[in-house]
């Protein structure tokens, strides 16, 4: 893999919570436009890895370079780097005091100094894309979980990021709402967005991923294209995990 | 969602009526109607001294409100700074805020009033009412700081993470995301503190500030009608706090609009 075309370069990172090793020598490269799906049992460090990419989680050692910016270079402004990294959370985390539309426009208006009319237009276009334009004036708690998560995706997209990070985006949803969220994510993937997705949705991984990463006990156990990963896994731990989940 | 149910309860103000609580609501109505009836009937039945007391204290009511509103405004500013200090990762700021809260909480308000009044008097000559406002807000700022701290901490950390992930810094996150939401949690206890403060302003009558109580004492010491005077004064305070508690409860109800489905 050529480092020049990698937009995320993670090198040998370690992370401790007290004496517990949450990340153990993890290295991962993500190229522009690539979709990486991270799988693993709970507590395997997959969310910690994802959250390290936008520094919501700080690492104990190693290096992370995003779009040419070293996250741990004191000269870099983490807030600027985060503007390039959209993030979608398991629990949506929409701003409860703002309407759906305001959730989308807050960051572009305040951070990019985008005129309100332009931000509104952008927001409505994105809401159209995720299929909830008619709820623009509602407050988040008036929406279903699936709708909230779609708004959360649109909110992240409103900053026009280069990379999207998804932290178990469907885990908090009722089963009948998972499909509508995955559909939006698939569309986004088709459009060429660079994505790192932590999920338990094997169908999504198989359909969308360029690379599937399997983590266990803070380390990457196996990394492969989905057809190889699902049909012909090499490691016993991967086989065991797939047997339990499929 | 469970964290919406979180309420900060500091019970030193008047009971704020909850629109859903019919029992308290009717208690509020009974108290209000009773208070108004007595305030109207007593002066009608016995204009001297009841009517005379009522004519004597209106400027005192203005002073009481002046001291209360100035003090609560200043206390809100001090409280916000103190609350941010109490959750700050800056050790000096944090320690200073915590020390302030500890000191203020440990000294009775009346002692603080005397202390600040006479301590100020040693260095600068300020009008009595200014000294009173400084003392009241110094004390209430500490309580308000605890209210702000609890209010800010009651907001789910996911809100902070979402804001940071968009590219907002800590200060912007506080201003655009956390405080606007915390305000809703904070409002009931702030309303409580406002009413408690209004009642506590009666203490400043000792500092030669002509509030309701001071005006009443002046009248009573001339006319020797102590019982009648203090009856009217108690009723005036009660009427004010009853009306305020209702206003605050309405405001709180309106502010919760985005939580209703």
Q: Which helices and strands appear, and what pairs or packs with what?
A:
The complex is a heterodimer of chains A (246) and B (261).
Chain A (H helix, E strand, L loop, with lengths): L5 E12 L2 E12 L3 E5 L6 H8 L7 E6 L2 E2 L7 H6 L1 E4 L11 H12 L4 H14 L15 H13 L5 E5 L7 H16 L3 E5 L3 H7 L2 E6 L2 E6 L1 H6 L4 H10 L1
Parallel strand pairs in A: 3-8, 3-9, 6-7, 7-8
Antiparallel strand pairs in A: 1-2, 1-4, 4-5, 9-10
Helix pairs in contact in A: 3-4, 3-5, 4-5, 5-6
Chain B lengths: L21 H24 L1 H10 L1 H30 L3 H16 L2 H15 L4 H26 L3 H10 L3 H31 L11 H12 L2 H30 L6
Helix pairs in contact in B: 1-2, 1-10, 2-10, 3-4, 3-6, 3-8, 3-9, 4-6, 5-6, 6-8, 7-8, 8-10, 9-10
Walk me through what this model shows.
The complex is a heterodimer of chains A (246) and B (261). Helices cover 37% and strands 26% of the residues of chain A. Chain A has 9 helices and 10 strands. Chain A has helices at 46-53, 78-83, 100-111, 116-129, 145-157, 175-190, 202-208, 226-231, 236-245; strands at residues 6-17, 20-31, 35-39, 61-66, 69-70, 85-88, 163-167, 194-198, 211-216, 219-224. The mean pLDDT of chain A is 94. Chain B has one domain (45-260): MetI-like fold (Orthogonal Bundle). In chain B, 78% of the residues lie in helices and 0% in strands. Chain B has 10 helices and no strands. The model of chain B is unreliable at 1-5 (pLDDT under 50). Classes of the chains: A alpha/beta (246), B mainly alpha (261). Chain A binds chain B through residues 54, 56, 79-80, 82-83, 85-87, 89, 91, 93-97, 106-107, 110-111, 139, 141-142, 152, 155-156, 159, and chain B through 1, 156, 158-159, 161-169, 172, 176-177, 180-181, 184, 257-259, 261.
């Amino acid at each position: 893999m050529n480092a020049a075309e990698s937009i995320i370069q993670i090198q040998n990172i370690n992370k401790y919570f007290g004496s517990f090793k949450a990340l153990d020598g993890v290295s991962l490269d993500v190229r522009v436009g690539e979709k990486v799906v991270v799988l693993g049992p709970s507590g395997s460090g997959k969310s910690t890895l994802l959250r390290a990419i936008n520094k919501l989680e700080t690492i104990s050692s190693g290096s992370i370079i995003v779009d040419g910016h070293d996250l741990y270079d004191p000269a870099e402004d983490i807030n600027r780097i985060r503007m390039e990294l959209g993030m979608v959370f398991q629990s949506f985390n929409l701003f409860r005091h703002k309407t759906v539309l305001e959730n989308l426009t807050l960051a572009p208006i305040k951070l990019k100094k985008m005129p309100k009319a332009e931000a509104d237009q952008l927001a409505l276009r994105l809401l159209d894309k995720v299929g909830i334009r008619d709820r623009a004036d509602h407050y988040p708690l008036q929406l279903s979980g699936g709708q909230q998560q779609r708004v959360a995706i649109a909110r992240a997209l409103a900053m026009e990021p280069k990379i999207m990070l998804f932290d178990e985006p469907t885990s908090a949803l009722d089963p009948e709402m998972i499909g509508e969220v995955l559909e939006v994510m698939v569309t986004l993937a088709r459009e060429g967005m660079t994505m790192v997705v932590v999920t338990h949705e094997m169908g999504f991984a198989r359909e969308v991923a360029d690379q599937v990463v399997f983590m266990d006990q803070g380390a990457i156990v196996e990394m492969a294209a989905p057809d190889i990963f699902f049909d012909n896994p090499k490691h016993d731990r991967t086989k065991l995990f797939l047997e339990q989940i499929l | 969602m469970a964290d919406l149910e979180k309420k900060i309860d500091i019970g030193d103000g008047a009971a704020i009526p909850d629109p859903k609580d019919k029992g308290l609501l009717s208690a509020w109505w009974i108290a209000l109607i009773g208070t108004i009836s007595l305030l109207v009937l007593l002066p009608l039945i016995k204009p001297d001294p009841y009517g005379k007391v009522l004519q004597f204290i209106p400027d005192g009511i203005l002073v009481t409100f002046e001291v209360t509103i100035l003090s609560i405004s200043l206390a809100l500013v001090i409280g916000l700074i103190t609350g941010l200090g109490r959750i700050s990762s800056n050790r000096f700021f944090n320690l200073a805020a915590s020390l302030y809260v500890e000191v203020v909480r440990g000294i009775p308000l009346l002692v603080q009033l005397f202390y600040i009044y006479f301590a100020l008097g040693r260095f600068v000559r300020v009008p009595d009412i200014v000294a009173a406002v400084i003392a009241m807000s110094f004390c209430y700022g500490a309580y308000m700081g605890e209210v702000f701290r609890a209010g800010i901490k009651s907001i789910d950390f996911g809100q902070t993470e979402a804001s940071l992930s968009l590219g907002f810094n800590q200060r912007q996150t506080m201003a655009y995301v956390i405080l606007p939401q915390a305000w809703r949690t904070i409002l009931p206890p702030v309303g409580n503190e406002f009413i408690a403060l209004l009642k506590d302003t009666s203490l400043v009558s000792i500092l030669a500030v002509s509030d309701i109580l001071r005006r009443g004492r002046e009248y009573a010491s001339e006319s020797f009608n102590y019982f009648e005077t203090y009856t009217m004064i108690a009723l005036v305070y009660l009427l004010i706090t009853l009306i305020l508690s209702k206003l605050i409860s309405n405001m709180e109800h309106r502010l919760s609009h985005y939580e209703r489905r």
